[in-house]
Structure formats: structure tokens, C-alpha cells
Automatic annotation (TrEMBL):
Species: Bradyrhizobium aeschynomenes
The keyword Translocase is annotated on this UniProt entry: yes
Broad class of where this protein is predominantly found: membrane
Entry function: NDH-1 shuttles electrons from NADH, via FMN and iron-sulfur (Fe-S) centers, to quinones in the respiratory chain. The immediate electron acceptor for the enzyme in this species is believed to be ubiquinone. Couples the redox reaction to proton translocation (for every two electrons transferred, four hydrogen ions are translocated across the cytoplasmic membrane), and thus conserves the redox energy in a proton gradient.
Subunit architecture: NDH-1 is composed of 14 different subunits. Subunits NuoB, C, D, E, F, and G constitute the peripheral sector of the complex.
Membrane topology, from the record: Peripheral membrane protein
Protein name listed in UniProt: NADH-quinone oxidoreductase subunit C
Cellular localisation: Cell membrane
The encoding gene: nuoC
Family membership noted in the UniProt record: Belongs to the complex I 30 kDa subunit family.
Domain NADH:ubiquinone oxidoreductase 30kDa subunit positions: 33-154
Molecular-function GO term, any one: oxidoreductase activity
Amino acid sequence: MDDGRLEALGQTIVSALPGAAIGHSVAFNQLTVTVEPARIVEIVKYLRDDPGCRFINFTDITAVDYPERAKRFEVVYHFLSPTLNTRIRLKAEADETTQVPSIIDVFPGADWFEREAYDLYGVIFVGHPDMRRILTDYGFDGHPLRKDFPTTGFVEVRYDDQEKRVIYEPVRLNQEFRKFDFLSPWEGADYPLPGDEKATK
């Protein structure tokens, strides 16, 4: 679909869903519609059922974290319309307490994607029948794809041979003092290196 037809489709969706679809943009031959998270089920039903859209293929749900914003998350939905031979992206802003309605009743395939967005970002989907972690462990602390999550994590997991079980321990980053040599190997070191004694003078 060319940019003109995508622009027209975006205008049609925004005008058909006042207050739900807030705005749209076309970039890199892709249509993005900004939506109100509380009305996502209504929007998705429209995109699936309207004869001018027919976005019947659910592709993905994920999130993006912008910690400097008041609403730090963008919940991102992707759909495909084989009828129009085009894709659409929906973006909804949310924070840690925003309750985003689950679209599982419209697209049952959204089940694990919503669980993943909850597990990795902490986005809360209400109306989901089984909202629990899917990729991290049961007692995992935090949401690992948030930008403020430490890259080392909070605990490390290892198998203890003496206790014959998996144990969790706080992360310890022990680092001995090291002297780094930043000389170029082409310049040569100003101190003797192992093996120098074999060279002829």
C-alpha cells in the first residue's frame, strides 16, 4: 500500500473511533495509530470486523520503556490485513498502574504476548484469565526489560552440590585490582615481557 492510501486509512480509523483512536502517522510505508488504552478492545474489534480494514491477523504485543516520561510505557500492537495487504501498528501510552484491557476475547492468540509484556515490563492487562509470569522464575523480583533494571539482576541462581538443590544468592561482583596496559603492541612495552630473555640482543 502506498503512503497516500495508508494516510487515508489512518484518517478513516481516527474518524470512525473518536476519542479511542487519537492520531495517526505514516513512516517507512507503515501506518501507526495512537490509541487510548482503556478502549483497546473496541479499537481491535473495529479493525478486525470493519470491511474496509479486515485486520484479522494478530501478530504481536510488546512494550517500549521511556522512563523519563510520566507515562513510561508504550504498549505496541501489530496486526496484518491480508485483504488490504498491509500492516498496522497501534501504540497506547501507559504507566505502572494503568490497567490495559486484555484483547484475548477478540484474539485468543494474544494470551502469551500479554503475559510476556507483563513479565518483562510490568504492564498490567486486566481481564486476562491467567496473568502470571511466563519467562522469569516464580519469585523473580522486578521486570528485566525496564531501563532502570540493573543489568546484573538482583539475585544469581546456581546449583549447590552440597545441598543438592538450586539456590538463590544476592549478586556479588567481586573484582580484583587489575593494572591495564593500554600500550599498542606495535610500540612495545617499556618493561620486560615473559619470553624476552630468549631474544638476542
